[in-house]
């Protein structure tokens, strides 16, 4: 249960081009749960021609349909944690490569080709072309896991959702977003993208409804994070330090929602408390607080930091960052033999300096 946390369900308006409030809900039941293990699938890249030797561990892959023989790119499609299982001859200097991977979320089951598709290009997380192939086939498709059900209790319905659920409108419901709310009724953090599958009168409150939705659960650590933001941005620094890497990454959800205030002028100095920067997620939490104070946000990945440096997030380049207790990160963020690994201490330093941030190690 989420006692003390209310939720807002958002969707499209009647004309389906603007967002509006669909429901206010008093609680969510079964929202927090360990996510199921990612479904590993097997694919065969048929008619593969390599541009470089394929490693056994491929990591993150980008598949791009080629719309014409000139190689014009179309919509990309993604696989994660990919590994090569086998290869076999494919004729005419080509091979068929069998891989196992996790299909990235929020994309169609198969890459969208074009009528004039001439195959696909295959690249890695660094945009290096690994090769080209003619056709992608899923080998022995696996059964999809059952959806996770959440009950939104004590909901007051608004707009199109009320019309549809009370039978006065038969159109399908489209866009949906669920937000957790703080004690003031402001958005605390995003909670997911639910699909409404059932509605019945609330057993608790007259004139309200209980909704059953299918959505991805929130990790249990989120139930520990949200109460720390229930009254708005926390006033105590480094509350994120108690959490592991996943918790620190989730800490940045409410931090992003609560960013405010004008940019400090260029040339300012900010102090980063490095005592708890034992992983890259901790670096982003500490950087946000260095620039914007407790609960501050200044990006959750290197691309996000680069965007923040352009303005609108509390500071603009150039500025000076004094990194206190930097030896903690130097020890903990070393090279790791992983494909798509987190950034190392030296890579973070190089990135900041390239982006116009003067880093002083203290």
Give an account of the 3D structure:
- The chain has about 350 residues and is of the alpha+beta class.
- The protein has helices spanning about 160-165, 220-225, 245-255, 280-290, 300-310, 325-330, 345-355, and strands at about 5-10, 20-25, 25-30, 40-50, 55-65, 75-90, 95-105, 120-125, 130-135, 135-140, 150-155, 175-180, 185-190, 195-200, 210-215, 270-275, 320-325, 355-360.
- Helices cover about 15% and strands about 35% of the residues.
- It has 3 domains: about 5-35 and about 145-225, Pnp Oxidase, Chain A; about 40-140; about 235-360, Barnase, Chain D.
- The protein is flat, with a radius of gyration of 24 Å.
What is the terminal-to-terminal distance? 45 Å
Order of helices and strands: EEEEEEEEEEEHEEEEHHEHHEHHE
Radius of gyration: 24 Å
General shape = flat
Sequence stretches where pLDDT stays below 50 over 5 or more residues: none
Instruction: Estimate the helix proportion, in percent.
Output: 10-25%
Q: Name the quaternary structure.
A: single chain
Give me the count of strands: 18
As for the CATH topology of the largest domain, it is: Barnase, Chain D
Integer tally of domains: 3
Main sheet specs: 8 strands, antiparallel
Overall pLDDT confidence: 89
Approximate strand percentage: 25-35%
CATH superfamily of the largest domain: Barstar-like
CATH architecture of the largest domain: 2-Layer Sandwich
